Amino acid sequence: MVFGLSVSGLLEPEPAPVKVTLASKPDEPATGPASPHQLPAGADAEAVAAGDALFKANCAQCHAINEVVVGPALAGLSRRRPISWITAWVKNSSKMVAHGDEYAVKIFNQYQKQQMPSFQLSDQEIKAIVAYIESRSYQVSASGATGVAAL
């Protein structure tokens, strides 16, 4: 059993991965259980695995996929911001806030003006982290979970 820190600060068991099977045609309903590690169509398994390791080493101290920690929950991140914005933010969020990027300033203010540190990650490493986040977001979306904070 894996334990994680909840928003309330209590240790709670992490929910088991969601099992889903996608329909082979858009109008066809999903059926039957699938691997709990099934990735969304088009996801690169190697990038997701690399992103998992990078996320745990660089992001997990302040972020979770589905819960607010120090910073916002990251589920659905690439649906809210383009990869070019995410890359610039990860590399130097302070610069984006200082230059008045509207969304950057909003996030900065929303999280008690807590500055996200700059990371010396390559564009490819950031894309791998986003692929991992999206693979986990997909698993949550398939379960019908809601209430994720926005970045």
TrEMBL record:
Read off the InterPro entries from this record.
Cyt_c-like_dom, Cyt_c-like_dom_sf, Cytochrome_c550/c551-like
State the source organism's domain of life: Bacteria
Please provide the record's keywords in A-Z order.
Electron transport, Heme, Iron, Metal-binding, Transport
Where's the Cytochrome c domain? 46-137
Q: What is this protein called?
A: Cytochrome c domain-containing protein
